[in-house]
Amino acid sequence: VPQLRKDPILARRVIIATQRAKRPSHFGSRGNADPATSCPFCENNEDMTPPEILAYRPSGSSAQQAGWTLRVVPNKFPAVTREEDFAPYTEGMYQYASSVGAHEVIIETPRHETNMAALGEGEVAGVLSAYRERVLALKEDRRFRSVLIFKNHGPEAGATIEHTHSQLIALPIVPVNVSEELKGARHHYETYERCVYCDLVRHEASTKTRLVSEHDAFVVLCPFAPRFPFETWILPKKHSAYFEHISQREIVDLAATLRETLGLLNRTLREPPLNYVIHSMPLHEAQTAHYHWHIEIMPKLTQIAGFELGTGFYINPLPPERATALLRAHMI
Amino acid sequence: VPQLRKDPILARRVIIATQRAKRPSHFGSRGNADPATSCPFCENNEDMTPPEILAYRPSGSSAQQAGWTLRVVPNKFPAVTREEDFAPYTEGMYQYASSVGAHEVIIETPRHETNMAALGEGEVAGVLSAYRERVLALKEDRRFRSVLIFKNHGPEAGATIEHTHSQLIALPIVPVNVSEELKGARHHYETYERCVYCDLVRHEASTKTRLVSEHDAFVVLCPFAPRFPFETWILPKKHSAYFEHISQREIVDLAATLRETLGLLNRTLREPPLNYVIHSMPLHEAQTAHYHWHIEIMPKLTQIAGFELGTGFYINPLPPERATALLRAHMI
Asked: B302 — contact with chain A (CB < 8 Å)?
């Protein structure tokens, strides 16, 4: 059973998940394995994953069979499991809990694509719809207080499977990074009576030095204080705290925006490994005026090293104004 | 000029240091370069570094010449520079400052050793003495509020030079990770009137399930909630807030402890890439009863990925009790 352990000094928690040590690596095209027989996310290999939670497939086709365009399955090597309850324990001065939660994998296409940018706009829109649908479903389970949606692309960014996919983890607590962000946003709101992200969108859209692109409902920008070279954020122009409240029309625009942005990064950096994370409000909050959901995309070009681990600060050799110019130069 | 930029929402700061993009990689033995002519940290290549700040060398030998056993030099590609003042600026809603500071490199030996464990105990003691000496000297400059001492070993852990070395960065502010740790320790002290690290040392030394080794003045343990597999901490048994107050006798014991611990990790994990960070009190604090300096050693075996970046939580497949048993089994 995975354990959620609390650091005795910090708000930091660690999930001790021994299951995950058993993960095999599925980077077929870097070795000799044939994806058609060895990739657990390819069509016709449905029996290599646990039974699907959600699938987009034509009516008439059966679960766990070919024919789907997108599948969501439980992570086979989960960091948290839904069967457990959140039961707290102590060991002397320490606290831990059985780590109830959900850990799901969104398989973005039946084809063996190794880069999300290779998907069509309709496929990317399907991925975003699946994110929304799963968050709304998990929200019904009142044990969960937050859901994190993220992508690890490439082994350097922590992926063990090359077939393009994303992940989702639901947790019974609000993670420290999320609560710190909420606290900072609330502080700005209490000071200025405005959402800090709305301010930021307005500022960047008018000064333009860090504005990568502007779409109907979204802006793409390099943030003022990026941790990593080419860190890029996508924000909705309209104030909205919950990602899962996104409309179908916005999903279509976000799909175009995300696909274009990943393409820009691929052309500028030759298909870099990367992570993205959707930052959204914890599940059941009443006050929503101060927070604004967004996506943070982080190419993995440098290593987090002693300085970052010790300080929580980051050293970044590339000013975001320069990153913006380089990305813009690769716009088609 | 490097800039210290503040995130508009979080306590996180980022140093934008364009200089650092120019760093060449010096992993000679993985390529074909001969360290004798290409390694900037080898004896006889003193002119490849900026002039030394400190050197241990026999009387009669001259600065920037061979004969030394240890050198401290300014980082040639610094993240912060001592010439600047800490001048704050604003750009619209954003804040930044010129990033005054010191960024120094401790060259641990004149020989081309690529692993600190290959140094003799006397050499490691010299490295620790140099750390102490430099912190005490930088403490005289009242612009600095904290000094971070750390090691990046191996390219996967962020090193660009293989010749064994450590680094030190002095900053005009207290980094968020340091202030969070102080806050947690103060909370424990206010609740129990005891130092949390003293409690932790007592608990681990008596239960022994996470105790790797015990020396005269130090204990080595795997922490209860480790972020990374084989994360290992070294703590002084006696309460002490400031690393730089270490005695000569303690330095000798710490050198033996650190060398043995790195050797254990090397034998257990085949010379893993790793980072270590010395956690010590900010420079000029009056209250010291609640804080306790220590070293955190973090082998780099897994990647920080989307989940960690999004939550600030960590997924670790290896329980520290198991890591402890594996390390102990490699004790000579």
From this structure: yes
* Alpha-carbon gap: B20 to the closest alpha carbon of chain A (Å): 5
Whats the size of chain B, residue-wise?
332
Q: Which of B103, B153, B165, B290 is catalytic?
A: B165
H or E, element range at A169: strand A165-171
pLDDT > 90: percent of chain B: 85
φ, ψ of residue B324 to 5 degrees: the values are: -60, -45
Q: pLDDT per residue over A223-249, tens digit each?
A: 999 999 999 999 999 999 999 999 999
Q: Which of A225, A227, A305 sits opposite B152 (nearest CB)?
A: A305
**Type of residue numbered A55:** A
Does A315 contact chain B (CB < 8 Å)? yes
pTM above 0.90, yes or no: yes
Q: Which of B176, B185, B200 sits opposite A93 (nearest CB)?
A: B200
Spatial contact of A2 and A99, defined as CB atoms under 8 Å apart: yes
Instruction: Output the pLDDT for position B208.
Output: 97
Report d(CA B151, CA B128) in Å as an integer: 12
**Average pLDDT estimate for A292-316:** 96
CA A240-A244-A248 angle, to 5 degrees, is 90
Q: What is the DSSP letter of B190?
A: H
User: A45 vs A38, A51, A64, A134, CA distance in Å?
Assistant: 8, 12, 9, 23
Q: Is the Cβ–Cβ distance between B178 and B279 less than 8 Å? A: yes
User: Does B286 lie at the interface with A, CB-CB under 8 angstroms?
Assistant: no
d(CA B302, CA B226): 13
Contact in structure between B309 and A277 (CB atoms under 8 Å) = yes
Kindly determine whether residue B167 and residue A275, on different chains, have CB atoms separated by under 8 Å: no
Model ipTM? 0.95
> Would you say B50 and B74 are in contact if contact means Cβ atoms under 8 Å apart?
yes
φ, ψ of residue A216 in degrees (nearest 5): -55, -50
Token pair for A267: 């052309």
Q: Is the pLDDT of residue A27 over 80?
A: no
The confidence band for B261, taking pLDDT boundaries of 50, 70 and 90, is very high
Cα angle B137-B282-B116, degrees, rounded to a multiple of 5? 65
- Chain B contacts in chain A segment 102-141 (CB below 8 A): none
Radius of gyration for the alpha carbons in chain A, expressed in angstroms and rounded: 20
The per-residue pLDDT for A31 is 54
Cβ separation B14–A316 shorter than 8 A:
yes
Q: Residue A298 has what DSSP assignment?
A: E
Select from B185, B284, B297, B190 the least CA-distant residue to B239: B185
Q: Is residue A80 helix, strand or coil?
A: coil
Read off the pLDDT of residues B313-326 as tens digits, 9 standing for 90 and up: 999 999 999 999 99
Model pLDDT, residue A34: 86
pLDDT-based confidence at residue B88 (cuts at 50, 70, 90):
confident
Percent of chain A's residues with pLDDT above 70 = 98
Residue at B260: amino acid letter: E
CA distance A223 to chain B (A): 9
Residues 39-68 of B with CB under 8 A from A: none
- What would the two tokens of residue B254 be? 């710490």
Residues forming a β-bridge with A71: A55, A107
**B26: which 2 tokens?**
């010096």
What proportion of chain B, given as a percentage, has pLDDT over 70?
98
Compute the average pLDDT of residues A209-219.
Answer: 98
The answer to whether A245 is a known catalytic residue is no
